[in-house]
């Protein structure tokens, strides 16, 4: 039981409901949240796609703690060249804060203003001593699920995403003593290690499962209080019907084809208790708007879903062709998924300000059998028929451009470093000068590639993961 965890969290859960409901979730990230014993520093960036932001106010546990004007972030503008309002996005605050106000954890809401109007929100939580209590997975495993080797990033992203899930649980059902929780696709425990160390209500129990045996083994050996099970790539899972009250699935459906999604939705419905909920994330239209693969936009327009791009992050772990980079529209998800389970909530950018969060519920009356278009018995047969991904052929011209762009990027980074060290180099002028070495068409292509490389670097900062297609899991 989680109540036996090593940290006692005396603070009751509080959710900044009022704030988060009225405001648009911003695209953004907390680069740093740090308490040095006297001052609490917060650094990050946020922007909206449809209107500018000028300043931010920071709320700690819902109480105003400070405000500041936004400043220009060239790195963010460079990463999101086609997003009009991405440049004026940076915020840094250094707040004199008492230790007690941060313990054992504190919610941080950064509210973005357009003039005097509060319009955007970026949220996370901060727990100053959390890292000390948490076992850290090996780099190889962190990289596999989150494309990061940075343990602080792994923890911060985990906390921020889990916080989003907990808020949605509170809104749709609540979490109660005795609840049985499943971390479906737990990987190396990004959520589980937090849940087992107090970031949940006391008296609940936790199980985790994943198709990645090595990650499951690590959880089993290092995360006390949970039960972890390796499962197959197709249902059924080794759980009885109606075994769980709450299922969390962060970034699993983002990798499953339409066929596999159908099978797994039915499986989640089977193992949920009546009235239980499953919260799962998908790549929706917002995430798709950051994809540089033209097939994504085309498929979303034509079919509502793109599931043919391979993701190599699980090479050697999952069968070839299984793991994908999948995008789907809100309309597709709501219309298609309701065949298998009730869709009771859809929060755009609701998981980490990037993936959409879908709330599913098992009703208390039995679902009509006729509504199931894929049966569990067909699972293995369907798996065998899953389409082989169309992997884009490597274009030698693009390869050579990529090399040019990478060299250029290195040269620009070098200039930025010397600027940071005090030289008065004009970065914009230097960048223009460097680009002038290329002909007009090549220049355009190099600029596009540079934007993509920058975007990959920035999304790594946002979500950690960026697979070989340059997309985020
Ligand atoms: C992007 S990672 C996210 C892992 C974890 N939820 C986290 O946030 O760190 C996706 C995970 O889903 C797992 N996975 C893929 N297909 C799965 C399935 N059908 N059932 C359970 N886990 C699956 C992968 O092995 C991988 O650990």
Each distinct ligand: S-adenosylmethionine
Query: What is the structural class?
Result: alpha/beta
Gyration radius, in Å: 23 Å
Which fold name corresponds to the CATH topology of the largest domain? Rossmann fold
State the end-to-end distance. 31 Å
Are there runs of 5+ residues with pLDDT below 50, and where?
1-19, 387-394, 460-473
The main β sheet shows up as:
7 strands, mixed
Could you say which overall geometry the principal axes of the C-alpha atoms support?
Answer: globular
Question: How would the blueprint of this fold be written?
Answer:
Blueprint: H1 17-22, E1 24-25, E2 27-35, E3 39-47, E4 55-60, E5 63-69, E6 71-72, H2 74-79, E7 88-96, H3 99-102, E8 106-114, E9 117-126, H4 130-133, H5 139-146, H6 151-172, E10 180-184, H7 192-195, E11 205-210, H8 213-222, E12 226-230, E13 244-249, H9 258-271, E14 272-282, H10 285-288, H11 294-302, E15 305-310, E16 324-328, H12 330-337, E17 342-351, E18 355-361, H13 379-384, H14 396-420, H15 427-435, H16 440-463
Parallel strand pairs: 1-9, 10-11, 10-13, 11-12, 13-14
Antiparallel strand pairs: 2-3, 3-7, 4-5, 4-8, 6-7, 8-9, 14-18, 15-16, 17-18
This protein binds S-adenosylmethionine.
S-adenosylmethionine is lined by residues 145-146, 184-187, 190-191, 209-212, 215, 231, 233, 250-252, 255, 264, 314, 473.
């Amino acid at each position: 039981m989680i109540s036996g965890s090593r940290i006692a969290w005396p603070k009751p859960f509080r959710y900044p409901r009022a704030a988060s409901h009225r405001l648009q979730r911003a695209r953004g990230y907390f680069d740093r949240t740090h308490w040095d014993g006297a001052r609490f520093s917060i650094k990050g960036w946020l922007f909206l796609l449809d209107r500018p932001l000028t300043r931010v106010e920071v709320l700690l546990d819902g109480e105003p703690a400070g405000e500041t004007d936004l400043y220009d972030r060239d790195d963010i503008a460079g990463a999101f060249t086609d997003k009009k309002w991405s440049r004026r996005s940076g915020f840094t605050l250094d707040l004199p804060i008492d230790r007690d106000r941060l313990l054992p954890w504190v919610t941080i809401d950064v509210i973005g203003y357009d003039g005097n109007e509060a319009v955007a929100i970026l949220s996370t939580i901060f727990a100053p001593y959390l890292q000390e209590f948490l076992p850290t997975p090996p780099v190889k495993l962190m990289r596999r699920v989150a494309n990061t080797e940075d343990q602080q990033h792994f923890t911060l992203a985990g906390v921020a995403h889990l916080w989003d899930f907990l808020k949605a649980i509170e809104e749709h059902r609540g979490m109660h003593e005795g609840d049985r929780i499943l971390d479906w696709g737990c990987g190396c425990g990004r959520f589980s290690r937090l849940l087992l160390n107090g970031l949940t209500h006391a008296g609940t129990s936790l199980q985790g499962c994943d198709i990645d045996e090595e990650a499951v083994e690590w959880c089993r050996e290092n995360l006390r209080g949970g039960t972890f099970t390796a499962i197959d790539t197709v249902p059924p899972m080794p759980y009885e019907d109606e075994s769980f009250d709450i299922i969390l699935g962060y970034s699993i459906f983002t990798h499953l084809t339409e066929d596999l999604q159908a099978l797994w939705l039915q499986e989640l419905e089977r193992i949920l208790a009546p009235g239980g909920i499953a919260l799962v994330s998908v790549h929706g239209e917002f995430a798709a708007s950051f994809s540089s693969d033209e097939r994504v936009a085309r498929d979303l327009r034509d079919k509502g879903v793109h599931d043919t791009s391979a993701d190599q992050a699980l090479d050697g772990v999952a069968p070839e062709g299984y793991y994908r980079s999948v995008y789907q529209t809100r309309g597709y998800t709501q219309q298609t998924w309701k065949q298998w389970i009730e869709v009771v909530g859809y929060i755009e950018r609701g998981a980490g300000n990037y993936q959409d969060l879908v709330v599913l519920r098992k009703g208390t009356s039995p679902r009509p059998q006729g509504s199931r278009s894929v049966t569990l018995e067909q699972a293995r047969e369907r798996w065998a028929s899953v389409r082989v991904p169309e992997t884009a052929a490597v274009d030698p011209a693009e390869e050579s451009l990529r090399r040019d762009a990478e060299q250029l990027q290195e040269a620009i980074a070098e200039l930025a470093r010397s600027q940071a060290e005090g030289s008065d180099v004009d970065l914009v002028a230097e960048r223009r000068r460097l680009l002038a070495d290329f002909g007009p068409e090549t220049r355009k292509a190099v600029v596009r590639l540079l934007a993509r490389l920058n975007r990959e670097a920035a999304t790594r900062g946002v979500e950690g993961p960026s697979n070989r297609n340059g997309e985020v899991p």
